Hints:
Residues 73-189 form the RGS domain. Residues 1-19 form the signal peptide. GO terms for molecular function: GTPase activator activity. It comes from Pomatorhinus ruficollis (streak-breasted scimitar babbler). Its main location: membrane. By secondary structure, the protein is mainly alpha-helical. The protein has a domain at 58-192: Regulator of G-protein Signalling 4, domain 2. Helix content is 79%, strand content 0%. It contains eight helices and no strands. The N and C termini lie far apart (75 Å).
Amino acid sequence: MSCWMPGCPALSMCRGLAALPITCLERAKDLKTRLGILLHKPELGHKAGSSSKLQLGSRRRDSSRDVLEWRESFDQLLKSKSGVNAFHTFLKTEFSEENLDFWLACEDFKKTRSKTKLASKANRIFEEFVQSEAPREVNIDHETREITRKNLSGATSACFNEAQAKTRTLMEKDSYPRFLKSASYQDMSRQAASRGSSKRSHT
């Protein structure tokens, strides 16, 4: 049937058919977009996984560098959260973790701004770590103990400074060298060095 005549049914049909592919194409494009998103999801997941692996690798490298820096100085060890945790675990094996706990309590104490809290915290720390026969008594001399006791009467953020310094020196001169020689640190150090050399060989 010819569709050249105006008003011919075939002409309107042709027009309808001509319009149909456009609609179909639009729907097809929409489906393609949706399918594309679905198809790319595993790839995105893979990328996210790769990203998390890279972040994990980065954390491992940072951790490796940390571990090796602990032996540079006692300060380096105390600056590292994981270093403090490792040292604390070691001190537990020697039944002397109260020294580090006291030092950490003093560091936290210095950050206290409220005078009321300062006084109550000072008494609590003194009773737990400093006074004679304290539950977790630290190894300081009698003179330092008495100076600290007197400081409590007008508690300031510096009232434990002397006792904290003595405890720190004790850990640095006594426990810290033993920690560096311990099997646990030697093992961590070997692993850190191995990861470091492995990274260099891949670059």
